[in-house]
Amino acid sequence: MSISSKRLRTLVTTGAIGTTMALVLAGCGAKAGDEAAGSTTSAAPSCVDTSGASVKLGFLNSLTGGMAISEKTVSNVLHMAADEINADGGILGKKIEYIQEDGATDWPTFAEKTEKLLTQDCVAAIFGGWTSSSRKAVKPVVEKHNGLFFYPVQYEGLESSPNIYYTGATTNQQIIPAMDYLASQGVKKLFLAGSDYVFPRTANAIIKLYAAKLGIEIVGEEYVPLDKDDWTSQVAKIVAAKPDFIFNTINGSSNVGFVKAYYDAGLKAETTPIISVSIAEEEAPAMGHEVTGQYASWNYFQSLKTDTNPKFIESWKAYPNSSGVTSDPMEAAYISLYLYKALVEAAGSFDVDAVNAAAKAKPITFDAPEGTVTLDGENHHISKPGHIGKINSSNQFDVVWASDKFIEPDPYLEGYDWFPANIREQLVNAAG
Amino acid sequence: MTKLKPWISLGGIGLFAVLLLAVAPLLLTDHWLNNLGKYCCWAIAAVGIGLAWGRGGMLVMGQGVFFALGAYAMAMHLTLESAGDRVPGFMVLYDPLAPLPAFWEPFRSAGFTLLAIVLLPVILAGVLGYALFKRRVKGAYFAILTQALAVALATLISSTIRETGGDTGLSDFKYFFGYVLNDPANKLMVYLIAAGLLIVCLLAVRQLYRSRFGELLVATRDAEERVRFLGYDPANVKLVAFIVSALMASVGGAMFVPIVGIITPAEIGAAASILMIAGVAFGGRASLFGPALGAMAVGWGQSSLGSTWPEGWTYILGLLFIVVILFLPNGLSSLPARFAAARRKPAEKPVPAPAAELEEVRA
Amino acid sequence: MDALIAPLLNGSAQGALLLLAALGLSLTFGQMGVINMAHGEFLMLGAFAAYLVQQVISASDLSIPVALPVAFVGAGLFGLLLEVTIIQWMYRRPLDTLLVTVGVSLILQQAALQIFPSQGVPVEKPGWLDGQLTVLGYGWPLRQLFTILLATVCVAALSAWLKYTSFGRRIRATVHHRDLAETSGISTRTVDRLTFFTGSGLAGVAGVAASLIGGTNSQMGAQYIIPAFLVVAAGGIGQLKGTIIAAWTVGVALSYFAYWTTGSLAQVLAFILVIVFLQLRPQGLFTVRTRSLA
Predict the structure, then answer these.
(1) pLDDT of B242-294, one tens digit each?
(2) Least C-beta-crowded within 10 Å: which of A310, B38, B320, C45?
(3) Vertex A184 angle, CA A182 and A187, to 5°
(4) Strand partners, A63
């Protein structure tokens, strides 16, 4: 039963054949530093066909897995916006034909589905994503195929891409206003609590830099894995640190555990309030009365009194599978589709380069539920109003502070002298 | 044990090689070829699971750990290759002045990286397996321990955001050992390497299964005590199978990185490790082709059914576990043998399931 | 003082919750050899039961005490259903029960996601659990005390049930020697079903406790399952006292690690602690003496 020399030979031969084939083919591929490298990295001709009566768009949201608890609503609101636009005559007279894909809370799946949408389904643009990780997985793929991706959630900034449009807030539209508000309230000691992933870590790095400038002392910083709810140990540290305010960058269900542990420990909104950047109208009901009286920094609240907001709320409530409340990420997703419509109509074409050129040519605006937002054609973010809200007993937000004008997006914090130029420079270089 | 005639299994591998290496590149679009490459990576890990679990009776529920070793070794090398002299972008923000973490440095070298992909899993599996098998940890304990390891490693990677990229993982690789990854010709090369490695792994386990070691491994699975009484040390037999399976998981992980273009802790954690098992169970744990084909089928299901009917796919995957394990413990590949046996001797029970597990848990 | 006493008390409560989650497993895994990966989802069912009870009895002071038996019976019935439809065919293949129940857990998670609001549902804490008990200067949340109390009651009830009732005697007889028990006229089928019902029901009770600590949603069960299995394994199969000590130790260790390092690192360290312990002592803290060679 020992391995005969004949079998061994077969094994070696087959292995060798495979390797040889691979190497022969490799001879044809571009190598680093080749002259060809520049040209081969540019995308193959786009397969998008908009000659028919409809235009294909891709929606990419996690419908299964952990993030489905947040992303299902974004997917629904995108469907609603598409239905609305179709009822209104479509984009450039073409009906939207959307293809819904499931990101499955798995970043490589986001990358795979992006590639599928761009190269198999030949969609003109993709909408979706929630976590920063999902966006970072999509980014290289849309850049490689020169596609378009519209990302609807507030994030940590320090990014821009010719192939991505960001309709959620960047740091200077959400976190910096929140810090300004805290400073105006005379906060001296701040505690940072977050989930252990890229957004809270980055946001807190920025908060620490700004706090130093504002003269706010950071008395503690705690992270818990995204999939863990138990915050009791960390809240004990908060009690010991006696902060004036808690800055909360926790995401998802872990927020419920945080608020419960906070309440259990006898902390109260009157004495040690929390300001959050991930708790909105959607999330608050799952936390019960314990979240009442806490603060959140967003651009949009359901309670905003604008001309367009009532219609948005009404359409959403009437929409099948609606959650009944509107929130900032939903509204940003709603904006993203309308913004795309405005861009395409300004360009007169679905072509990515034409759309990007139109964005630069003249300001594109949209009368969003949060007010009239304007696209910055250079960094692909939109202007937004800053709002701080306080959660009332019906899980709605009472606005306690609003920025006096719309805040222009500044993803790399170029207008803020406290942000070290060397970090910015390295980040821009790394983004290449 | 159903034994195929030597030429059948060898011919099967040959046919499989022709399909993967010649037919698939001709017929499939770039996107689906890339997907097939991804399934090949899972299949490589699955072949190892088939060896350890199907033949060796060790339910390895933490192959994600070894998959991670290969994947992260490769990803670190490719990240450094893309970053050039600079510190990788994601590290800059948390500490712009800090140098590259020391454990990254050696991965600049292509040779060291390739060596690490092979040696790291062998060393870890060797140490871990030696401790576990010598102390006769087996059955459910072994399964839960390995699963806990996968969870621990995934949590560790998630929380060390500056050192490993955290939950976001490592992505955006530009080069693969000097080749531009965006070039379709190079993508094809990466695919062919993965498919070729899968064929090599299949040939390797075929040899193992036909060798004296293969017989001993099955004997250890079915009656460990008897093997001991015959003068062999079952721990050593299991150790070798465990190390080989770890090595295969690592190789699968390493190829996953250039093909998929991203690696994250979610690909190596509890759910991912269980999904690897799913394919093996589905295809047939103890057969030669079952694990690889099963893993590819599950991967394909995820890509295609996960698209058209995402909620449904979760239910189907759940039902797949239940129905296959309940009614077809030896997977789909046992169906032909079952039919054949049923036709010949209707009364006889075909292909009994590995039964020696019972005492292990009860003991 | 705070730095020493707070993690000890918090950790004890964390350990108590872990114990509640592990208690049912120590029955189904320890006594029956079934590796039920859907145990975490039974825990989730208990939490949703607490929410549903709160929809009927809106006063949370009353609804949580009512929810405890409801969750026990509800999760228990689901367990019974699982036993009758699937598990009973698999007693000779324990490792395969692990894989089958992975499938069950996937299905239950997805079903919960589609049936209940995707963000999860609120479960309000009873008013009488507001407040803290001051222990050596540390304000110990009453809710934590409640978790410990609940775990104590469950352990006491379970051990009394196993020790003094005729059903309990039958269970122990079946565990010790199935064939002999059957020959003596004990219906091992009934015993199996009852054990599985009780084990799953205990997961439901743990779910009510968990609903007061974290979110009640489709994902909640997943975070308890592996730690709970580790605790049962570290305690020694079929050993209630081993499970208790292991759960408490892990809870307190987790809490001190979290106090000294970070929340994430604490998880990793606690896992490594148990894994290393199991490498050194694979049979767990306590073992039943058997004549088995292994």
Answers:
(1) 999 999 999 999 999 999 999 999 999 998 998 899 899 999 999 999 999 99
(2) A310
(3) 45
(4) none
- Answer whether residue A14 shows pLDDT above 60: no
Q: Where are the beta strands (DSSP E) in chain C?
A: 132-135, 138-141
The per-residue b/e assignment along A112-148, b for 16 or more CB within 10 angstroms, e otherwise, is bbbbbbbbbbbbbbbbbbbbbbbbbbbbbbbbbbbbb
- Written as one string, the DSSP assignment of C11-62 is HHHHHHHHHHHHHHHIIIIIIT----TTHHHHHHHHHHHHHHHHHHS--HHH
> What tokens does A92 get?
């450039």
SS3 assignment, position A299: coil
Set of chain B residues whose Cβ sits within 8 Å of the Cβ of C86: 322, 326
Rounded alpha-carbon distances, angstroms, from residue C95 to B1, B140, C288: 20, 6, 21
Question: Which residues does residue B179 pair with via DSSP β-bridges, in sequence order?
Answer: A31, B176
Measuring CA to CA, how many Å separate B94 from each of A111, A189, A432, B97, C158?
25, 22, 19, 9, 51
Residues of chain A positioned with their CB less than 8 A from the CB of B262: 107-108, 111, 137
Stretch 107-136 of chain A: residues touching chain C, C-beta under 8 Å? none
Q: What are C167-201's pLDDT values in tens digits?
A: 888 888 887 788 888 898 889 889 999 999 999 99
**C24/C221 Cα distance (integer angstroms):** 14
Q: Enter the tokens of residue B343.
A: 């036709």
Instruction: Identify residue C288 by its one-letter amino acid code.
Output: V
Q: Which chains touch A (3 or more CB pairs under 8 A)?
A: B, C
- CA dist., res. A73 & res. A79, Å (int): 10
ipTM of the shown complex = 0.90
Q: Chains near C, with 3+ CB pairs < 8 A?
A: A, B
**The token pair that represents B146 in the structure block:** 């390995």
Integer angstrom CA distances of residue B130 from B137, B216, B221: 10, 18, 17
Alpha carbon A429 to chain centroid, angstroms: 22
Half-sphere exposure of A89 (CA within 13 A, CB side): 4
